[in-house]
Amino acid sequence: MDQTSTGNQGSHIRMLKKEMLILHERIMDLEKEVKGIQGRCKHVFYEKAASRTCIKCHYAESTYY
Q1: What pLDDT, on the 0 to 100 scale, is given for residue 65?
Q2: Cα separation of 63 and 6, whole Å?
Q3: Distance (Å, rounded) from C-alpha 42 to C-alpha 54?
Q4: What Cα–Cα distance (Å) separates residue 50 from each residue in 4, 41, 59, 61?
Q5: Paired strand residues for 45
Q6: Residues 6 or more apart from 57 whose CB is under 8 A from it?
Q7: How far apart are CA 50 and CA 60, in angstroms?
Q8: Nearest-CA neighbor of 35 among 60, 63, 55, 64?
Q9: How much is the pLDDT for 2?
Q10: Which helix (H) or strand (E) holds 35?
Q11: Cα separation of 21 and 54, whole Å?
Q12: CA angle, corner 50, sides to 61 and 60, nearest 5?
């Protein structure tokens, strides 16, 4: 089966993948920042039946053992 012409889609895809990589790296940096903030937080927890969440930094953990 013959492939139809894709025009300039190859370079557009490369550009999109490059942008995705940049955004992924930014997300990883932001996740590290959140973990750092949560690690230094003096937690004040709001407790539910199976979990508790810090009202200051939104750190959450399960209390269901």
Answers
A1: 73
A2: 54
A3: 9
A4: 55, 22, 14, 9
A5: 54
A6: 34, 37, 38, 41, 43
A7: 11
A8: 60
A9: 52
A10: helix 9-40
A11: 31
A12: 20
Burial 51-60, CB ≥16 within 10 A → b, else e: eebbeebebe
Q: How far apart are CA 45 and CA 55, in angstroms?
A: 6
CA angle 41, 38, 58 (to 5 degrees): 100
Residues of the chain with pLDDT under 50: 1
| pLDDT reported for residue 64 | 83
- Three-state DSSP at 16 gives helix
